[in-house]
Amino acid sequence: MLRVISRTNDNRSKSHLTFNAAEGMDMRYLVILFLTLGLVFQSGCTSQARKTHLVFENENATYQELHQALEELKPVGHKGATHLQFKAVKSLRHISKYMADPAKREMGTRGVVFLAAFNDDLDVQRSCNSRLDTMLKDPNETWALKAVIIDELKKIMMAESGYTVESKSFFSGQEERVFIRPETGARENALEFLIDRFPDLSEYLQYLTVQAFGEFMQHPVTCYEKDGDVCTEDDAEDLAEWKDELRENIGDWLENLGVSEMIKLSLIRMTAASQEQNQASEPAAENRARFWLEKWADDTDIPKATRKLIRVALDKMEHLYPELTETTSASGTAIYASDESYRTLDLFDDNAFWYANAGKILEDQLFRPGPKSPQPATEAAASRTGPEDEFLQVPFEWIFAAGYSNNPKQKQLREIIYHESTRALSLGYQLSPADDPVFNLDRALTSATGESIWALDRTLAIIGKLYPSLLSQQVDGESLVDMLTKRLTAAQDLHTRRLYYDTLLEAMPYFPSIVEPALCGSLNREDLLTRHLVREKVAALQSPLQLLTRKKQVQERQADFFQSFCDQPIERKEVPAEQTVPETQLQTSPGSGEKPAETTAGPSSERLEDEPKPE
Fold it and tell me: Which has the least CB within 10 A, 490, 521, 559, 560?
C-alpha cells in the first residue's frame, strides 16, 4: 500500500514538474512576445525628428540620404503637431551646433532657417531665430555657416525655398507633385530678420546681405496660381510694399555713422542697379527708386561724400556722361579735367581727380566703342575693328593695381572700378594686354588674401569674368588653373575654398579639359555638400553663347554643354514651374499700404543652450 502511494506521489510530483516547466516556457515566450511588440511599438512611435537625427549621426550617410531625411522632416516642422515641431527644432539645432561634419552642420542650419519661416508657433520661431542670432554673432563661427543663413533667408524672401509633396489629384486620380512655398508672412519675416540685424553685422556679412537685397530688388513678380491665361494669385502688391520698405531702411543706413562708406556705396549702387534692371518694364518702380535717391541726395543728415555718390548714381541712371573737358555735369556735379593719361592710375595722388572721375572715364573713354555711342558692347564687337578697339578694353592696371591704401577715398575708388569693370567684362569687353597676366593675377590674390575676405571675394569675382578675354589673348589656361587650384588647396577656410571653386567653375566653358580634372582632384578632399554644390553648378552651365570671334552669334539657349562631370552623369535639377507677371501690374505707390507687421522673432537670448539630443 505504501508502495502504491509512493508511486502515486511520484507521478503527481512528475506531473507537477512537467506543468511548471511548460508554464515557465510559456512565460518566456510571452516575455519575448511583449518585448518584440514593445520594440515594434517604440519604432512606430519614433518621431521623424529622431529618425532624421539618426541618419545624420551615421558617418557613412550619403548626401542623398541626408537630403531625404531633411525633406521628410520639413512637413512635420511646417504642419505637424506642436510637440513634434519642438522635437524637429531640437534635432536641427543639435545638428547645426554639434555635428563634426561641416556639411551636416550646414544642412542643419538651412533646416533651422526653414523652420523659422514655415512655422506659426512663436516659441518655435524664437528658438530658431535665437540659434541663428548666436551663429551670426559668434566670432569663432565659420563664414560658410554665416553665409548660408543669409542665402537661405534670401531664398525665403524670393519664395524659392520650400518642399515638395506628392498627392493624388481629385479630378484625374493621378499623382501630382506640388511645391509648397513660404507664405506671405514668412517672406516678410525673413526680410525683417535681415533688415533688423543689418546694422550690427560685420562688414563682410553686410556686403553679402547687400548682394541678397540686390537680387530681391530685381526679383520679378511671380504668378503662383493660374486659371487659363489669368493669374489668380501673384505677389505684386506685397513685393512692391516690401521693396519700398527696404528703400526706406537703406535711407536710414545711409544716415547711420556706424555703417562704413564702402557699404553705403554698395547700397547706393544696388539701388541704382535694381532701378536700371526694372526701368524698361516697370516705369512705376523707376519713379519710386528715383524718388528715394533724390530724397537721399537732398538729405543734409547724410554725409556730404555719400550725397555725392548718390548724385553719381542718379547721373548714371539718366546716362548723363558729359565730356571730361566740361567743368560741371548736367546735374551740377563738379567734373575735373586732366591731361594725364587715362591708362595711368596714380594711387598716391590725392588730388581727388581719379575719385571724382573714375566712373566717367571708364564709361566714356575706355568702355565705349566711341564717344556717346549707344551701341551695346556685343554689337560693337561684331562690327568694329582697328585702333578704336581700344575703347572696348578694361585696363589691367586699373583692376589689379598694387598700392591701394585704407584711405577711404582709395577704398571707394577701388569699389567704383570693381563695379564698372565687372559690368563691362560681363558685357564682353576685353582685358587690356598685360605682361605675364598669370603672375599679376597671383600677386593680386596674395594682396587680397592678406587684406580681408571681402577683398579676396571681389578679386576672385573679377577673375571669374576674365576667361573669355584671356582665351582670346591665348593666355596659358593651364598655368592659370594650376595657380587657382594651388591656392584652393592651401585655403583652410571652407567659405574661401568655395569662392575658389566658383571662380574655377566660371572657367569650365572656356578651358573644360583643364578645369574638370583640377576640380575633380580637389573635390575628393571636400565634404559631401561642397561636392554636391559644385556638381549642381556644373549641371547649370551652358556653352558660351558668344564665341571669341568678331562674328555676331545667335542668342539662343543651347543644348546642355556638360553631360557628365568627374566621369559621372549629371542630374539636371527640376525647377518648379512658375509664371512671371509683367511688373506693370504693380499698383502700390511709395509709402502706401499698411506698415508691415513686426517680426515676432526679435533678438533673444540663446535657448536650449545644452542642445540635448532629440528623443
Answer: 559
Of the candidates 522, 520, 510, 521, the residue with the CA atom closest to the CA atom of residue 480:
510
What's the rounded Cα separation, in Å, for the pair 247 and 589? 13
The phi-psi region of residue 608 (left if phi > 0; otherwise alpha if psi is between -120 and 50; otherwise beta) is left
Range 62-71, long-range pairs (CB < 8 A, 24+ positions): 62/528, 63/103, 63/528, 63/529, 63/531, 63/532, 66/103, 66/104, 66/107, 66/528, 67/107, 70/107, 70/110, 70/111, 71/163, 71/164
pLDDT digits (tens, 9 = 90+) for 1-12: 444 444 455 555
Rounded Cα–Cα distance for residues 575 and 96 (Å): 27
> How many angstroms separate the CA atoms of 340 and 97, rounded?
57
Parallel, antiparallel or unpaired: strands 393-394 and 430-431: parallel
Half-sphere exposure of 498 (CA within 13 A, CB side): 22
Taking Cα atoms as reference points, which of 70, 32, 35, 77 lies closest to residue 51? Answer: 70
User: What pLDDT is recorded for position 15?
Assistant: 53
74, 58, 54: which is closest to 116 by C-alpha?
Answer: 74
Q: What is the DSSP letter of 328?
A: B
How far apart CA 582 and CA 130 sit, in angstroms, is: 38
Cβ contact 240:587 at 8 Å:
yes
State the pTM of this model.
0.76
Rounded to whole angstroms, how far apart are CA atoms 60 and 24?
A: 44
Main-chain phi, psi angles of 80, to 5 degrees: -75, 170
> Phi then psi for 225, rounded to 5 degrees?
-135, 140
Average pLDDT over the chain, rounded to an integer:
76
Considering 186-200, 295-309, 347-361, the range whose residues carry the highest mean pLDDT is: 186-200
Angstrom distance (rounded) from CA 308 to CA 331: 11
Closest CA to 316 of 328, 336, 304, 331: 331
Residue 2: beta bridge partners?
A: none
pLDDT for res 277 = 61
Q: Give the integer Cα–Cα distance in Å for 420 and 69.
A: 44
Does the pLDDT at position 206 exceed 60? yes
Burial level of 256, CB count in 10 A (0-12/13-18/19+)?
middle
289 Rama sector, left if φ>0, alpha if ψ -120 to 50, beta otherwise:
alpha
Q: How far apart are CA 470 and CA 474, in angstroms?
A: 6
Burial of residue 168 (CB within 10 Å: 0-12, 13-18, 19+) is: exposed
Q: How many CA atoms lie within 13 A of 166 on its CB side?
A: 4
Q: Which residue has the higher pLDDT, 264 or 583?
A: 264
